[in-house]
Design a protein that fits this description.
The chain is built from two helices and 23 strands. By secondary structure, the chain is an alpha/beta fold. The chain has two domains: 91 residues, Rossmann fold (3-Layer(aba) Sandwich), CATH 3.40.50; 111 residues, Hexapeptide repeat proteins (UDP N-Acetylglucosamine Acyltransferase, domain 1, 3 Solenoid).
């Protein structure tokens, strides 16, 4: 059994810990050592069964260690994973037992899939995607480092670029293209393609000025 370290001790990291506990309850998979976070006081006022055992910035990867990503910010995910993988870190996927992934779907490294998340037939999800309790429709494509918050509808044949962030309750109609580094505000309804480096909000979603 490998030792598991959760990268990031914020709210998302603590949620990842809960999903790891659910996985271990069904089948013992990892020995959780704790969190690494550059803010060593992040858990000071929290009730948590694990502690921060060191900083990300100076963590030395040891044998038998693997890592789970507990960070939601797309650009921070990219920075941190590249840093640790450059030191030899192995990232695992944390897929809650209640998540449903179609047999024909594919996904990359470090997927975090929350309870009741879903990935439909022939969809593809890239590296270090965070999928809260939302569904990815058939034939959709999700780029690396993207975060999809809870209760989103990413419908059939939608394509999301890299480092996209969808707030909760976002709906995207089929066949739309969302560029790289796009932020979609909570509750937005996307009916048109969205250009790279955009922030959009509303129903229908419009670019913020």
């Amino acid at each position: 059994m490998k030792d598991l370290i959760i990268v990031g001790a914020g709210g998302h990291g603590r949620e990842v810990l809960e999903w790891v506990k659910d996985i271990n309850a069904e089948k013992p998979t990892w020995n959780v050592l704790g969190f690494i976070d550059d803010n060593l006081s992040k858990l000071a006022d929290k009730k948590c069964s694990c502690q921060i055992i060191g900083k990300i910035v100076d963590w030395k990867v040891e044998e038998n260690q693997c890592f789970a990503l507990g960070i939601a910010s797309p650009p921070v995910k990219e920075k941190v994973t590249k840093l640790l993988m450059g030191r030899g870190a192995e990232f695992v996927s944390v897929i809650h037992p209640s998540a449903r992934i179609a047999e024909s779907a594919g996904y990359g490294l470090g997927l975090v899939a929350y309870p009741n998340a879903g990935i439909g037939p022939d969809a593809y999800v890239g590296d270090f995607v965070t999928l809260l309790s939302s569904k990815i429709g058939h034939d959709a494509w999700v780029g690396d480092y993207t975060t999809i918050s809870s209760h989103c509808g990413v419908n059939g044949e939608v394509k999301l670029g890299k480092r996209v962030f969808l707030g909760s309750h976002v709906a995207i109609v089929p066949n739309k293209r969302i560029g790289d580094d796009v932020y979609v505000g909570l509750g937005s309804v996307v009916i048109n393609d969205v250009e790279n480096n955009s922030k959009v909000f509303g129903n229908p979603a419009r670019r913020a000025r």
